[in-house]
Design brief:
The complex is a heterodimer of chains A (175) and B (102). In chain A, 79% of the residues lie in helices and 2% in strands. By secondary structure, chain A is an all-alpha fold. In chain A, α1 (2-21) runs antiparallel to α2. The longest helix of chain A has 26 residues, at 49-74. Chain B is built from 3 helices and 1 strand, in the order βααα. Classes of the chains: A mainly alpha (175), B mainly alpha (102). Chains A and B meet through α1, α2, α3, α4 and α5 of A and β1, α1, α2 and α3 of B.
């Protein structure tokens, strides 16, 4: 069981590295799906089966499909990949990568100087989660409903293509 | 049952968060930046799950569900912004959107 944790953690890390280094965006989204599935396995091993199911359904299902729909609407062509190759040169990525690695090394140092503990994993089933969600966290559930409503209204408002109401004679005067 | 070191779970969350941060910093395409933000949110959710599993409390999974909700709302608004930027500027270059001229 412990070995499965490390294997799926390795898969998650490798596929996430592939996500941020691919030039073709559809390839990187497929790697993103693999990364989410590996992370769902990690959730299951950590004793959170409900979160694992949500990870697959919402992240790998809904969010990635939404991004793929938008890429199809944008109708990207072959030159987009060439442009990505021009943008991602070593001179661009080496600086931020080194600085992020320094921050990560600090994080690891802080983590491992504390007391280390290995705990036996206990299952937290969906019944306990549901009780907590609709008991003490009921206000937060209502607030996240309002957040989703704001998301829907905002996405509709921003995504609408505005009609040009200006007359063509006026357009000529403006130029 | 099975034993998993809490530190190693948090370490995995840290690695994934760092990879997402690098992705935001090094890519110029806006869609890649949005995907990297998703990776970072997912890593934060993993940290909550690890903590919830250490103390065997449901609060970690509850926080993961809230992060999931926020990620869904954020990605819908972000994709609408990407569509609008691509419609107006004809490119996905984030450097092209540096003018506040409507």
């Amino acid at each position: 069981m412990q070995l499965t944790f490390y294997i799926s953690a390795l898969v998650a890390i490798l596929s996430t590295i592939m996500v941020i280094t691919r030039f073709n965006i559809i390839h990187s989204l497929l790697y993103l799906v693999v990364s989410f599935l590996a992370l769902a396995t990690v959730f299951f091993i950590l004793g959170a089966p409900f979160a694992a199911a949500l990870e697959i359904i919402i992240y790998a299902g809904a969010i990635v499909v939404l991004i793929i729909f938008v890429i199809m609407m944008l109708n990207l062509k072959g030159e987009a990949i060439e442009q990505e190759k021009q943008w991602l040169t070593p001179a661009v990525w080496i600086g931020p990568a080194i600085l992020s690695f320094i921050l990560f090394a600090e994080l690891v140092y802080v983590l491992f100087t504390g007391q280390s503990s290995s705990s036996v994993v206990q299952m937290v089933d969906s019944k306990a989660v549901g009780k907590a969600l609709y008991g003490q966290y009921i206000l937060a559930v209502e607030l996240s409903g309002m957040l989703l409503m704001a998301g829907i209204v905002g996405a509709y408002h921003l995504g609408r293509q505005k009609k040009k109401v200006i007359h063509r004679f006026l357009e000529q005067i403006e130029e | 049952m099975n034993e998993v070191q809490t530190m190693h779970g948090l370490l995995l969350a840290g690695i994934l968060f760092m990879l997402g941060l690098i992705g935001v910093l090094i890519r110029r395409n806006i869609i890649y930046m949005l995907v990297s933000v998703e990776i970072m949110l997912n890593a934060a959710g993993l940290a909550f799950i690890v903590a919830g599993s250490k103390w065997a409390q449901p609060d970690g999974q509850v926080m993961f569900i809230f992060i999931l909700t926020m990620a869904a709302a954020e990605v819908s608004v972000g994709l609408a912004l990407i569509l609008q930027i691509h419609h107006q500027l004809k490119t996905l270059d984030s450097d092209a959107a540096n003018e506040m001229k409507g």
